[in-house]
Amino acid sequence: MSTFETPVRPDVQVPRGDILAALRAPPPSAVRAATPPHRPTKAQELEIEQERQAQALRELDALRLVFRGAHHRRGAFDEEEAQPEEEAGWADLSVEPTWRLRERMKTVSVALVLCLNIGTDPPDAVAASPRARRECWLEPFAGPSRQKALETIGAALQAQYERWQSRARYRQLLDPTADELRRLCAALRRSARSDRVLVHLNGHGVPRPTANGEVWVFNKNYTQYIPLSVYELRAVVQAPAVFVLDCSGAGILLPHFRAAMPRPNDDDEKPQTPLKDDCIVLAPCAADETLPSDPRLPADLFTACLTTPISVALRDFVRRHPDSARGRLDEETVEAGVPGRLGDRKTPLGELNWIFTAVTDTIAWNVLPARLFQRLFREDLLLASLFRNFLLAERVFRRHGRTPATIPALPPTADHPLWAAWDLAAEGCLARLASAQNASPVKQPSETPEKAPEPSPKETEDQPRVHHRSLRVLARVPPAPPEPTEPSPFFEEQLTAFEVWLRFGAGAVAKPEQLPVVLQVLLSQAHRVRALVLLRRFLELGPRAVDVALCVGIFPYVLKLLQSPAPELRRPLVAIWAAILAFDGSCRSDLARDGAREAFVAHLTYLSREDDSGENTEQKRLACFILATVCRGEPSARDACLTKRLDAVLLDLLRNDEGTLTTSHLRRWLLLCSGALVDGAAPEATQDARGPLKEEVIRLALADADPCCRACALDTVGSMLCVDEDVTECASILKTACRDGSAFVRREAALLIHALSKKGHQTALKALTEEGQGESKGDDCYESIFRILQLLCKDPFAPTAETARSVLDAITQDTPMTREGARQWASKRFGLSLRSTSVAAAFSQSSTSLEELLEMDPLSSDGEMRLYRRHRNRYCLREASASRRRAKEALAAREQEKRGAPSTQVLRFAQTKTFENVGAEMTSVMRFHPFESVLAVVDERSGVSLWDFNDGAAVARWNNGDLRTTSIEWVNAHASSLLLAGDVDGVVRVWGGLGLEQGPYEERSVRVVSAFRAIDVVSFQKSAGLVCSWSAREAHLYCAGDANSLVSWDLERECSVRAMATDTDACATVVTTLPLQPHRVTLGFADGQLKVFDLRDRATRPCQSYAHEHSSWIVHADAHKHSPSELCSGCVAGDLKFWDARIAGVSNRTLDVQNSAMTALSAHAEAPLLASGSHNQFVKFMLRDGDQLNIVRYHDGVFGQRIGPVASLAFHPTKLVAAAGSTDAVVGIYAAS
């Protein structure tokens, strides 16, 4: 191992004396030059002013770049993270929490190794004079001896590190030997155990590192330089470790730090994987570069940047902008010090440090991958401070032509636009400082600072000069209390920029640049409320936004703020915590300490005494969700909430709720919170909470207007069941729930049976499955529950039936089953409903004006679709008016012809298009979509197909089930259309995902949205299956057919609201409502009867019968929209009868339309037109007064094929277009001409 033989230290005796006495000595008075100041000319003043304005404009332009959210360009460094992670949008539900650190690590041991050898330069040092000499802002020749100066510098370096981590164990090693360095590192590793060790190596007094990966130390006599291998140093320090290398050519060591380290006691010489994650290195320059030697800079500039960044940053700013504040700023002013303390943000120095932290955090956040940012800036307090300050070091060193480097590598940040915001804040602070010193003599702009004479080499070695200003700073004399100053507008401007992004840029894929600044603003009382409100709005964008915010580091801040008594913070904090828990439920364990859970109970208690305004209702919902999440499965949380009487608060809120659909979101979480409060608790522990609260929950389970509330109530009933509970009450609840119109409620009913089996009733239920019957308690309750479970196993909605079968298997075979029901669904929907202020949420709400649509970003895909539908619907309504006008003109022309006057206004229907429904043998039912050029066709095998009747192309095909489909209706046609289909077994299926606005050949994901049993099928001699009629005005579906009753279903509430007996022995064949009286429903029967039912609760005559004048099957019955008092009906015999819809009696007039059997009849909703079809293969178009327009017997074309026996007819609701389906696969489209 080679050594330098040159003596490195002369034999100099160190004089005795206390250096502290010299440090405390008062400084000599400042000596100023006697030269009178030179006054600049007017031209010079004008030039200075123009330069100042130009500089101000440059700073302002850079600041505007930041405010506009100019995203810093990523490079190839980012690898996987460089791809746009928000591509799926902020509301991407597939986002998994990645913000929690796997291991929380901290730096507990720090080795400060100083190889200065004061007074002797290393052989490879550049002998420049003057050059940088200061170490830790001290002159090494300022003390009475060089040994004392070395000790003072070591103490100063430790003090600088203690500002960032005061709890670490610091050990100084001054001009060490190789053995001393090894022993120190080994001792620090033993004491640190698995925590991180930091080694700070200052090599200004030794040669530069070698290409072999060696650093230099001393021998025992300080006569030789001894090399020490980096591998040996790493082997002693081990991992995890941080190495700060403050020496020239430090970059030459980086490959050796990246190399793999052999494991202890490992004889295998195969290469190891580099432990990059365990070894972190910070170096000031590349392998072929030296440290800056400018005499105005400290020799340890890199260390100064890492440990005293504010001093370096201010000096760097003054050096780059000498004309700032009209020349009243210089390094002497900066060196005198900015008043205040680093830890006090109310002082100028503390505020500058606060702004610097926000700026560097934001720069790192925007240029680093998320994982690397968390590791370097959130894992360890000292490590985060070093890397935060390293960004400043890179900026300063690159201006001096040096290239700092790190392991892991960081992308360039010296030119990030946010540095302009820091320069502006620094300039404002220094300008205020210069203005405060106006009372003292101030240098003129033309003055040049007087430079102190450089010491001669002899003075440097034997008679060192003392820089009293630096010693005075080091003496830590208590500063005078700072005067109150105006705060910097930096944070307020950044909050404004973030608010602008939320308003206009939330739809972009890039994350907001200002988010780390918002995190820092949470520390300020002046802007804390505004920051929390903006943070809440950001989290409402969706799960990805929550994950981004948690990765930035908001969690400990919002957790600590829960302890604040300030009432204005409570509301945004509740919304923020609801978003966090909706995204990551594991955070509830963090609420167990410091009384955080009780804060939400107190907030809900306070809200229960407030009025039910929209904001208060939302706050109650958020608080209930948080408490439900916290209490579920946590006995300590449950007991704490019961102690605070949460059960009484929930009961009071449930009783005082209006019970409407507008407050259903609140009731859901009131119910789920009630269930979580008693779930799993002993009955005696929650006896007071179970009694009245359970009665209220059962009432809501049976009669609530919202189906989701009914499902949540059933879940809560399952949580409240006890072992010795009487099952009679449970059986009555299940009897009602299994007939519910909501598949969600029926699924929760099956899960309630599973909960009942887990509470001690499994044996009795299992006996029924094995024997077909068994011992029962009460009035055969177990047998009733078992029959309900069997009924649910055959539910028409597949997921519900699957759940019921899983419950049955769990009871009979004792297989485990996870109860995923209302609580999981509600938690997922809760995360979506949080997006109350986002653009996507606005489109999910109903709107009535075009102006409101324009406010909801019409340039987005959802907004474009909403605008299209609005214009489409308006166009169809105008077309309906045109149809009525054309029909009136045809009627007038018909009257003229009757009077013998010639007329050219002749209305006829001609075939425009035919298409063949391949695979079908007969068309049974057809319905036109009111706003799209789509015709729904059902064949005899329950095959449903959608056709574009303009082009004759199939849009979609699927099968409705195994049984024959007898009725279809378009639901919600004005928006996202649904198709409702009824079968002969009384089941209604609602189909969604039709995508009617798409092209004819685009794929669609048609699926069952819901399904329920609308009627109880009864056997009749003639069967009509299920016939129904949809009333869009009331959102009711009226169902009849092979049943003894007319059932009215409220599809908004998903429940049956009225059932009235038909009192007849024939099945219903037609159901229709009167246009102006939707509560009056007319039924036609297979035996020719007509009855009208009044569905109002207080109707004096709920059922009236018309005169039995029809002799056979009623084919169609309808009341014209513009003649609502006239009801038209037709039967198979071929006669049409017109009735007074206001009074049930005899018919007003009768028309014999055709002699053959009438197999189909349809009436136009807007125009007075009728169409009838016959098995004799013709379609007859006529007016409502009986005048015939024309008869269609043949298809148009060259061959003129005869149409088949007509099976169904349908008019378009608004256009003068009709469709005819026959007993073959051909469907004809006819339009008025």
UniProtKB/TrEMBL annotation:
Top-level taxon of origin: Eukaryota
Entry keyword set: Repeat, WD repeat
Domain Raptor N-terminal CASPase-like, residue spans: 104-258
Residue stretches of biased makeup (Basic and acidic residues): 448-465
Biased composition (Polar residues): 436-447
Coiled coil regions in record: none
Entry similarity comment: Belongs to the WD repeat RAPTOR family.
Positions of the UniProt region annotated as Disordered: 436-467
Recorded GO MF terms: protein-macromolecule adaptor activity
Name of this protein: Raptor N-terminal CASPase-like domain-containing protein
Gene3D superfamilies, sorted: Leucine-rich Repeat Variant, YVTN repeat-like/Quinoprotein amine dehydrogenase
GO cellular component: cytoplasm; TORC1 complex
GO BP term (any one): positive regulation of cell growth
Record carries keyword Repeat: yes
Keyword RNA-binding: no
Organism (species): Pelagomonas calceolata
